[in-house]
Predict the structure.
Amino acid sequence: MNGEENSITNIWPIGGGKGGSGKTFLTGSLGLLLARQGLRTLVIDADLGAANLHTVIGVAYPGRTLSDFVNRKIENLEDAVMKTPVPNLFFISGAGDNLDVANLIHSQKRRLLRAISKLPYEHILLDLGAGTSFNTIDFFLISNTGIFVTTPEPTSIENVYRLIRSVYLRKIRQVLREEAFRELLKKAVMRSNGTSAKNPEDMLRILKACDPIQGELLEESLRSFRFKLVLNQLRKQDNHQLGTLICRICEKHLGLRVQFLGNILHDDRVHDAVCRKVNFLDKYPYTQTATDLREFCHRFLAEREDNPPAGPPIERAGETIQITANG
Amino acid sequence: MKPFEEQNYYEMLDLPTSASPFDVRHAYKTALQIYGDDSPVSYSFFSRDTRTGILANLEKAFLTLINDQSRMEYDRSLITAGFMDESEQYRTMPKKPIPIFDLEETGNITRMVFPHTEKTLCPPVGHPVVREIMSKDSLTGRDLKRIRLELGITLEQIVEITKIRKGLLSAIEEDRREELPSMFHLKSFVRAYADCLRLNADEVSARYLKQASAPCDAGATEP
C-alpha cells in the first residue's frame, strides 16, 4: 500500500476492539518512551469522533486537528502537527468541532491515509478507536505491523479476535477484486449452508480449493503481516501465559503471525495519573507497570531491527529434558 | 496452513516427531489450556461444534501418542505415507549413570572415566614390572603408585570409582602415615584401590597393611 515510505517511517496502528483496554494510554506512553530515546515520534489520534489522546500526552487545547485536514481547511497534513511538552514527540489531534468527522467517506479516508504514510517521522503511532468499523480497520491496514491491545478479560479477548478476523477479511477483500470477492462469498455460504461463512479462514480455505494460485497469493499476503500483541491490565493472579497462547492460536488457526510483546501489570495509579493529567511514567517511574512499559518499548524496538521468530516458551521444558537425556 | 482436522497428531499438539512421552503429556496439557471449554484463550474463537471437534481430535492424538504400542503403529502409518522420516522416530534411550564430577577438567563429563579396555580388564599379573613388584613380601605405597602409573591409570579415575578422597589416596601412595585412617578403614580403602588396578585385593591389602603397621623407620628406610 505504501511501498517506499515505509522503509523510512514505521507506522504502528494500535487497536484492540474493546473500549477501555488502554489503547490511548499505551500509545501515549510508547510515544513518550520513543521520543525520550531521541527518535522523532508522531502520535496521531485516529479515534475519530472520540478523540482523547491529547489529554494523555499533556496537550490541553489542541489547535489544528485531523478534521481540518479532512475538511480541507489545511491542505498539508504536516501543518496539523503540534509540538508537545516532550522534545521529539509530535502530535496530531483527532478532536474537532465537527461532530460528523467519525463518518469519513472513502475518498477522504484514502487521502488521509496517503498523507499519513508520507509524513517524515521515524515512528508514527496511530491510536485507533474501539470497534471494528471500516474506518478503524482501514487505519489498521495502513501498515502490516499493527499492534493489538487486549486485557485478560474474556470480553476484551472476544473483541480482539473479532478485530483480528475483521482485519483478515478486509485484507482478503483488498487483495481480491470486487467480483471475485463476491463470488467467493457466495461459494462460502453455499458450501457451509450459510453457517460458517463468517470465518475468514474458512473463506481462504474455500478459495484455495477453487483457485489455488489466487489462494496461495492471498495466503502469502496474509503471512506478510507482522502483528503484535500486548496484554494490558494484567492482574497478578491472571495467567501470564495468556498472551503467548493467544498468539499461538492465531498462528495455528488463522495463519497470521502475531508476536507477543509482553504483559503490562494493572495499576490503580494509572487511573490516578490520568485523572491528574500528568504522565504516569514520570510520576511513578519505579512501579512494575512503568517497568513493564519500558520493557515493552525495548522489545518493540528490538523486534523492528532483526525480526526474530518468536518461539513459544513452552519449548523450554522440552529443551531441558533433552539435555539430561543426552548427558 | 493446514486446517486443524487434516493435521497429523504431532502437528495438532505442536510436537516434533521425536518428542518423548514427557513432551507429549506436556503438549497435551498446553493444548487443553488453549482449547479447553473454560479457556479464556480461545474464548469466542471457535463455535461450540468446532471446539468439541478439536477437543476430540486432541484427545485421540494424546491417547495414541502416549501409548508406545499405538504410537509405533501410528508412526509406521506416517512413514509409509511419506509424512515422516524413519530417523525422526522417537526411541527410548536406556539411561546410564551420569558422572557428576569433572575431576580431570576435560569439560567432557559424559565420558565414562573407567577405561573398560582389554588392557585393564585382564589382570595385569603378566606385566613384568607388576610381577616384579608383586613378588615382594610387603608393599609400600610407592609400589602401588608404580603399578598404577605402569598401568596408565590416573588417581582421579580411582577417585571416581572408589569415591575415596584424593588426598587420602595420595597419602596411601606416599606413605604419609600421620594422615592415614585407622587400620580397619585403611584395609578397605586399599582393597578398593587394588580392585581398581585389577590386583588381588586380599593379597595387596594384607601386604600393604603389614608394611603400614610395621615400626616407623622400617617402612621409611625400605627402598
Summary: Strands of chain A lie at 10-15, 41-45, 82-83, 89-92, 123-127, 147-150, 227-234, 258-265. Chain A has one domain: 5-158+227-309.
